[in-house]
Design brief:
Order of helices and strands: HEHEEEEEEEHHHHHH
Helix content: 40-55%
Strand content: 5-15%
Number of strands: 8
Structural class: alpha+beta
Radius of gyration: 23 Å
Largest sheet: 4 strands, antiparallel
Number of domains: 2
Number of helices: 8
Length: 258
């Protein structure tokens, strides 16, 4: 391979790496000021880097946002004392999580404008969506309807009714409900006033303590009993507990929107 080809290959690598790294970290001052102005204390952001291979977003609560001058006349937005790349930051607008760089009109590559719906295939690989429902989001529907997660779990259970198969289906269903719980919690939180957010956070923390204690008790109880069926029962109990909490928070969210 010639030196010229190697040089071009190296340049291509650098360009590709840039797309997957900093895109909108160092920006114009006007854009940085606009971004910081949108990020008041209490704002919830979501960090999601599709080019990096992220399979889920991470929540980033804002305590403080400021603009810092960088080399070359560029500026960087810092959240809670750390610089952020606006290409991989999403903020809720009109019920959807939209890319912050795109809101400001900053050109970015290989990133979705809106956060994708929860991908249950990545969270629980053993489960698959029912036919004709692969593009549905995992939002909680009307009470008389069967939730998509339950449909997925039921379909999985029908395929394999062995102890291992049922336990796996229920454990993966628990993962889906846990992800749904986190989503509904965040949706509820952003619709509350600061004082209400504080009490919700405290209530959820107490629920998590109760959940963990209950899980520990059930494990010790079922382990003391003979029969593999108790593994299935334990997995089902875990799923139902998180599902119930999701429904509770969803009812509060609906109440606020009435």
């Amino acid at each position: 391979m010639s030196k010229k080809m190697l040089a071009w290959g190296f340049v291509f690598f650098l360009v590709s790496a840039t797309v997957f790294a900093d895109q909108a970290a160092w920006i114009e001052k006007s854009d940085a000021d606009k971004a910081a102005g949108m990020l008041g204390p209490g704002t919830i952001l979501r960090s999601y880097c599709a080019p990096c291979g992220d399979t889920a977003w991470m929540e980033l609560p804002v305590s403080q946002a400021e603009v810092t001058h960088r080399e070359g006349g560029f500026y960087e937005v810092e959240v809670n004392g750390k610089g952020i790349d606006l290409a991989y930051i999403y903020i809720e607008k009109n019920g959807k999580w939209r890319n912050l760089a795109m809101i400001l009109g900053i050109a970015v590559q290989d990133v979705p404008e809106f956060l994708p719906d929860l991908d249950f295939n990545k969270i629980a690989p053993s489960l698959s969506a029912p036919k004709n429902e692969k593009n549905l989001s995992l939002s909680v529907p009307k009470s008389e309807e069967i939730h998509l997660i339950d449909k997925i779990v039921n379909q999985c259970l029908e395929k394999d009714n062995s102890t291992l198969g049922m336990t796996t289906c229920l454990n993966d269903g628990y993962k889906l409900w846990d992800a749904e719980l986190n989503k509904v919690y965040n949706q509820l939180r952003v619709n509350l006033k600061p004082a209400e957010q504080k009490t919700l956070k405290a209530a959820q923390a107490e629920w998590i303590k109760y959940r963990d204690a209950e899980f520990a008790f059930k494990i010790s109880l079922y382990d003391s009993l003979q029969g593999t069926m108790y593994k299935v029962i334990n997995a089902g109990d875990r799923l139902e507990m998180v599902k119930k909490r999701t429904s509770e928070l969803e009812s509060y969210l609906k109440l606020l929107k009435e």
